[in-house]
Amino acid sequence: xxxxxxxxxxxxxxxxxxxxxxxxxxxxxxxxxxxxxxxxxxxxxxxxxxxxxxxxxxxxxxxxxxxxxxxxxxxxxxxxxxxxxxxxxxxxxxxxxxxxxxxxxxxxxxxxxxxxxxxxxxxxxxxxxxxxxxxxxxxxxxxxxxxxxxxxxxxxxxxxxxxxxxxxxxxxxxxxxxxxxxxxxxxxxxxxxxxxxxxxxxxxxxxxxxxxxxxxxxxxxxxxxxxxxxxxxxxxxxxxxxxxxxxxxxxxxxxxxxxxxxxxxxxxxxxxxxxxxxxxxxxxxxxxxxxxxxxx
Length: 296
Prior knowledge:
Layout: H1 3-19, H2 24-38, H3 46-60, E1 64-67, E2 72-75, H4 84-98, H5 120-129, E3 131-138, E4 145-158, E5 161-168, E6 173-178, E7 182-191, H6 199-202, E8 216-223, H7 224-232, E9 240-244, E10 248-255, H8 259-266, E11 272-276, H9 278-293
Antiparallel strand pairs: 1-2, 3-4, 3-7, 4-5, 5-6, 8-10, 8-11, 9-10
Helix pairs in contact: 1-3
């Protein structure tokens, strides 16, 4: 069986158990139905299934437990913000596209320029093997390019852009570089001793890619219609509803109030009010006042 079929089988198991706990017989029956829809052979034995469970935990960090009392398998929920959720989503999208011979008028994708994803495989290899990376970086704010030598740490997605998180040798600090602005990437053979940097923790309270402001509690009051939307698609993983009425929602977040976050709040216009902290409330107020002057 090909690697593609292995991955597809993993996804079927995950999706089945995400919808509801199931016995092995339920899963086997689900596979048979998918076999008719996708026109692929998805026969599965108990031995293959047990091997798949181990691979799913190893590859996707999703733990599947057998409940002896109920006699079913279930996903052990811990952290719902796993990056593999997005990877699974991407693979499912590819599989959906392959079902149709013509998708131009059925799957409508947003138009955007190249995002630098062609560098991902090389950069992940460098991260995995602790190899120094050199490249030229084209800044938005100045002409020409600058030569960079970095110790790659991770790749982060932010608002449809991909960034290389790394330790800049010259700047002696953690920096981020948009993959779409990287030129002449070179994965060297020079190894480095990785620094003890927890990038997940570093960006835990980030909205966007920057963390230059101290993370703080932020309280927002939103119009009921917008509140319903943000309940289904939170601004940030720390978001929680602290009050809900028929007229409005009050949300609490814990983030770095950087420029990106300020722009995010401003885009909701009259549908949102910053209640806390006072400093952020004043910043938003001042920006709104400046915007009003442009139309007077």
